[in-house]
Amino acid sequence: MLRIPCPWCGERDEIEFRYRGDASRERPAAHAGLAAFNALVYTRDNPCGWHAEWWLHVGGCRQLLKVVRHTLTHEIHWVGAPGEEPPSRPDGPPLPPQAGH
Amino acid sequence: MTVPPYSDPPAVPAESSGRYSLWRLLREGLNGQRGWSRAWAKATPRPQYRVVIVGGGGHGLATAFYLASEHGINDVAVLEKGPLGLGNVGRNTTIIRSNYFHPDNIRFYDFSLKLWEGFERRLNFNAMVSQRGTLNLFHTEAQRDLFTRRANQMRLLGVDALPLSRAAVKHRVPLIDLDHGRYPVLGGFLQPRGGTVRHDAVAWAYARAASAAGVDVVEHCEVTAVRSAGGRVTGVDSSRGFIAADTVCLAVAGHSSLLAATAGVKLPIETHVLQAFVSEPIKPVLDVVLTYGAGHFYINQSDKGGLVFGGAIDGYNTYGQRGTLPMAEEVAAAGVTLLPGLARLRVLRQWGGVMDMSMDGSPIVSKTGVEGLSVNGGWCYGGFKAIPAGGVTTAHLIAHGEPHPLAAHLTLERFATGRIVDERGIGPYPYLH
Amino acid sequence: MAGPARIARGLLTDTSRAIDFRFDGRLFSGFDGDTLASALLANGVLLAGRSFKYHRPRGIVTAGPEEPCALVDVIGARGREPNRLATTLALRAGLVAESQNRWPSLRFDALVLNDLLGRFLPAGFYYKTFMAPSWAWERLYEPLIRRAAGLGRLEPIVPRHADPAETVHHHADVLVVGAGACGLAAAHRLAVSGLRVILAEQDVVLGGGTLLDERWDSWRAATCVSLAALRCVRRLPSTTVLGAYGHGVFGALETLAPAESARCGGLRERLHVVRVRRALLATGAHERLIAFPSNDVPGVMLAGAALRYLRCHGVAVGASPALFVNNDEAYATLFALDEAGVRCAGVVDARPTSPAAERARELGLDVHLGAAVERVTGRAAVRGVRILDADGRRRELAADCLLVSGGHTPQTTLASQLGAPLVWQDRIAAFTPALAPENGQVAGAARGVFGLAAAARDGEAAARQIAAQLGRSPDPATAAREAAPLPRDPEVTPLTPLWEVGGRRGKAFVDLQNDVTTTDVRLAAREGYEHVEHMKRFTTLGMATDQGRIGGLVGSAVLAQARGVPLASVGQPKPRPYARPVPFAALAGGEVREHYRPARRLPLHEWHAGAGATFVPTGLWLRPLVYSPQSTWEAVLNEARAVRRRVGITDVSTLGKIDVQGTDAGKFLDFVYANTFSSLAVGRARYGIMLREDGMLFDDGTTARLAPGHFLMTTTTANAVVVLEHLEFYRHTACAALDVVLTDVGDQWAQFAVAGPRAREVVAQVVAGVDLSNEAFPFMAARAAHIAGVAGRVFRISFSGELAYELAVPARQALPVWSALLEAGKPWGMIPYGLDALNTLRIEKGHITGAELNGNTSASDLGFERLLKAEGDFIGRTLSGRPGLKDPARLQLVGVRPVDPAQRLRNGLQLVAQQERTTSLGYMTSSSPSTEVAGWVGLALLAGGRRRIGERLIGLSPIHAEAIEIEVVSPHMLDPENLRVRT
């Protein structure tokens, strides 16, 4: 179970938050066209590795958190507010998926 | 000293595992089981194939089988990174059904159901296809109306569906508490031809049949990248070297995005975990596949006696096949609410699989922007029931270069054109599906 | 001492408190502190059950949760509980237990036929047959197989009351799993370092292996006293850690003793959710069996189990036991039994020599070195033990029980869940986990450090490492005050791996619960199921309730031998959660049955109930459906007609309400809505439609402008929560630069709609200081006002299609305002109307609800394309222009009337052409009898619907065998000019 360190509320269980998906893309400009908006809505990098994503703290401060989390180990590298970027990159390249069954 | 990687036995030439039958069982029983041989040959990959299928799960193996048996193409390798059949085909709740909303999906999944009905005879392997019925409960009139619409649409297409009254539901499932849950049961809809299939047997059956037809089923061969040149696929890089291929098909479920990315293809897929559970085995107590209408919960009883059940996906991107505790609590709560007699029964095992959640909730059987590269994926949590149809339609796509009519609605183009196939109108939010 | 085999006092049994119990109908006596297994053994009962597949007689094999055979049904006041382990079931007064899986009785089981036919029922036999004739699988074979499957029986009853449940949440620094020598020492070290420790132990008492060696009694007692005195230590005995969930979260299950359970209102288990910074796994190792033919006969037991029965319960498991071992640790049982006066029939040690064997010889025991047990004679009990000596000669020992030890296998389940790969250790012939330090520490027998003192020191060392990681070191003074000195571990020689004794005929079991034999494992290899996971699934080894703990590694060894590869490369199947079976009730917690979901009630719920309303669950809400005991069309139309002809009042408090304020509030609404709101005048409301980014219709509602920078948005009831989240998401991302604040005010306001030709008269009575004339307060006006003296708001909006006002007041004031309205409405015959009547009214007008706004419809589908703003960006703008969303053949909103007014319509009717009835053209979404015209009206989504107005189609409901001729009409069936709302 994820324990997410909300910058305003501290470390809280994942059930207090609502996941809002990939945070790696910015909404294109109004006239950017179909291809750009299609990419925003449908295309996903879906990495096995570090993933920037949104979590809304619905059971707490109701702020939107940007979280950089590893999608295999679930390690959380950084949490911040929208518009912020993590000050440092997480270590290492994305891991290959585990052979574990 | 760390565990050395699995060491293969020397390649065994393709030999027939022989026909399975009662007579053979009796004969081998008297012969000390000595006459049994490998269910599928352990192939060493050749440097070049006409078709390489990446992924030795249900869909990959089925595709290989139908390529060989329907299209006479057996210059095919199925490359599986570990032992075959241990991905989602080996860890699901075994349900088969075709009760969908979208007419194209009804046709597709019912085609699969018909193939399940002929499975054992076609493949000479008892996969214990048990059409005991799938029963969907409803708790509001709005739900009833939705199911009515769906059942009528199914019946228009000649697929079985019928409504059940409260009394009929209780008669069918004595364990149900109709009235004292938060959302009383108002009735149900039954698809009599729905049911369950023994999941391990499916992978083994297709592997055996494909292998017997001359396909190379190669285990412990991890494909790390799809190689292409000039917009055309050339082959795959693997842990056993580069393997050239005219056509490459990705059938790797939750890992689809990773492999597609190596060919520069981005997919409308997010990978999420779905938990499934099994209880301790008990004498028969439930003879239908049951889904709850007031919470995401479904349950059936396997032939070994354990109750197999599950709920919704955990709800965030993950490749870790684990699963979170709150979801397990939620699933158990739904189970006890619907079937209070389960309270003292014990949950034995829990496992998680990684689901390839597509952005509209419907599968993807499609060519990609790279010529010769196709994708069979996006099955979300409904891929198991679709294995035969997925295999047939993917084989068709590979053999003919055009979608099979029954899977024409499942191409990647639909996201750009807006002809998405969203069964429940949830939208491009996999974490809500 | 009760029972023929009870020869001493036991650590856990209180011989002053006898307890009577029944097993298979016979009455027995035991003591408080016994388990069912120890009490049965004390009474000389060896036969405990019948095996799953072959129905062979089975006894008690272990003394703990790893028990594979002694599963019983417990018959209690609340019915029958299947599959309880006799080895962990605490004896309590009035316990009634039955053996399982046998008919007609335990002694004579008809299905022992399976054993005789065993050669025809090898692993996986069912995959190869039962295929013909094709009808027979479901009608004949499967029912038979299902009846034979499963062990215990669950009665198909619906208990009236929910079991009590309790979930306890912990936050601490370190979780220590296991309170044997290692865990106790570690917990103590961590606690004196100032860390908060949770110590979980699956046994009913702390101590683990120290319970079996009396030299450790005083150390154990002293350490436990110390721990009890430390406030920063929380001890959880009878608690099994179920699984690791990542981020330091663990789940654990505590079983309450009968007395405590009675004190806690019948609570049987507690679920503990533990959140810590580090974990220390001192989970120990469990003994494993040796595979030889007939190694399942009742009386064949693990050596360590016999020691536990002796030490903890004072029970000697046999009058003349023999031992079959390959390691020194198992000799502890021998010496303890000998000291207790039990004459052992002999020791069979697979090794050529060992100091423990020498010591046994010195005690005058018959020791056979370099020997092996080939088989056991007897079927329902051990009668003798046949051995093959080093000299090649065969002998028989006159033993009545055989205590087996093939070595000890570290318990690695939790470590595996924390991601630890398994590493082969030749010294102990087992795998140990290599856990990364940031995930935790493994210490003691769990990582192959056998010997109690060695384990204790290992636990200490691991604890020091964790303390250092967490920045704590023990105060030197406290550190100097060591716990009681550790007794010395005896010298041991390493074991010699012995997995299987082959050569003789008969079934040699590796999984006692699923009846998996060495032959099955070899068959798996022969058929190509040679990876350990395939072998597991093919043979079902390890898939029973015990997860193959005592024989899993043996199975892997047989597999390795069959394949001719080292055991290290074969591995063992990945262990899965849960570490012990968890009752549904414990996992489910308290939010079950009536409490499965919260119930949200309207501020006026009591009033509605008192007025005779029937409620309907709408999501979490309970809403009045109709003010009548049942929802009949008569009652509903009565309410709806009151609105059409006079005036009615309804409670619409469940609508989502979101307060939007800021200088950029208008801009924000322009972005989230498809139509324009910045142009809305103050004091006016406007209907808005909201799209998802993919261009599909998401929600609708009315938003009013109360001030230049102050709007009040309403959403549908069903989408209130998701719309708020949707808005908050965009507020923080694409709209981050805007000056706007969103506040959910859904629960703050109660809202009522007064609708009907007489609505103005009624509302004017209670609203002070506002000119409600049509000129001063036109359709879609919105103002703050005092309603029955309460500060609130008035909106002139209409869902029903009649002249209507919605009045919002603070929820606390709902009742007085509602009452005032009712009073004002009396002269006009105003009555309350519910959801069904509201639905009827809106259907006639062609207004949409979730039935039409179903997530798959676009603005254009529902006739709203005019609303999409021409200029300016909004959510969904670009993708709503995709060809697929503009296709004129898409399903579009239409109205439907039956051609024959006497016929009723039905939601879910499929619409088809008269001549071609297998292709669906669309479906009915909403329907109702009409208030004004004869017969039914409905709304439907129809392919190319807008071009089909006037066509006649067929509405089919095959599941009701209904076919109705219908006419396609405009959805705006009543007052399409909207004259009534504008009067």
Task: Report what the structure shows.
The complex is a heterotrimer of chains A (101), B (433) and C (983). Chain A has 1 helix and 6 strands. Chain A has 101 residues and is mainly β. In chain A, the strands form 2 sheets. A 4-stranded antiparallel beta sheet of chain A has the order 3-4-5-6, with no helix packed on it. In chain A, strands 1-2 form a two-stranded antiparallel ribbon. In chain A, a hairpin with a 3-residue loop joins strand 1 and strand 2. The C terminus of chain A is likely disordered. Chain B is globular, with a radius of gyration of 22 Å. With 433 residues, chain B is an alpha/beta fold. The termini of chain B are far apart. The N terminus of chain B is likely disordered. In chain B, strands 1, 2, 8, 9, 10, 11, 17 and 18 form an 8-stranded mixed beta sheet that branches. An 8-stranded mixed beta sheet of chain B has the order 5-6-4-13-14-15-12-16. Chain C is α+β, with helices and mostly antiparallel strands and 983 residues long. In chain C, the strands form 13 sheets. A 7-stranded mixed beta sheet of chain C has the order 42-43-44-45-41-35-46, sandwiched between helices. In chain C, helix 22 crosses helix 23. The interface between B and C is large, with 128 and 132 residues.
Topology:
The complex is a heterotrimer of chains A (101), B (433) and C (983).
Chain A lengths: L2 E4 L3 E4 L4 E5 L11 H9 L7 E7 L7 E7 L5 E5 L21
Antiparallel strand pairs in A: 1-2, 3-4, 4-5, 5-6
Chain B lengths: L21 H9 L17 E7 L3 H14 L4 E4 L15 E2 L6 H15 L1 H5 L10 E5 L2 H16 L5 E3 L1 H7 L14 E5 L3 E2 L2 H14 L3 E3 L4 E7 L2 E7 L2 E10 L5 H7 L6 E11 L9 E3 L6 E4 L5 E11 L7 H14 L7 E13 L5 E4 L5 E5 L9 H14 L12 H5 L16
Chain C lengths: L13 E10 L2 E7 L3 H7 L6 E2 L6 E2 L12 E6 L2 E7 L9 E5 L13 H4 L19 H13 L18 E5 L2 E4 L3 H12 L4 E4 L16 H13 L3 E4 L2 E6 L4 E7 L2 H6 L5 E7 L2 E4 L3 E3 L12 E3 H11 L7 E5 L5 H9 L6 E4 L5 H8 L4 E3 L2 E6 L6 E5 L5 E4 L3 E5 L2 E3 L2 H5 L4 E4 L4 E4 L7 E2 L9 H18 L6 H5 L28 E3 L4 E2 H9 L5 H8 L12 H12 L3 H4 L11 E2 H5 L11 E2 L3 H6 L3 E5 L2 E6 L6 H13 L2 E4 L4 E6 L3 H8 L11 E8 L5 E11 L2 E6 L4 H13 L8 E4 L4 E7 L3 H8 E2 L13 E6 L2 E6 L8 E7 L3 H12 L5 E2 L2 H11 L37 H4 L4 E8 L11 E3 L9 E8 L6 E8 L8 E6 L4 E8 L14
Parallel strand pairs in C: 1-7, 8-14, 9-10, 9-15, 10-11, 15-28, 17-24, 18-19, 18-24, 19-20, 32-34, 35-46
Antiparallel strand pairs in C: 1-2, 3-4, 5-6, 5-7, 12-13, 13-14, 16-25, 21-22, 22-23, 26-27, 29-30, 33-34, 35-41, 36-39, 36-40, 37-38, 38-39, 41-45, 42-43, 43-44, 44-45, 47-50, 47-52, 48-49, 48-51, 49-50, 51-52
Helix pairs in contact in C: 4-5, 4-11, 7-8, 13-14, 13-15, 19-24, 22-23
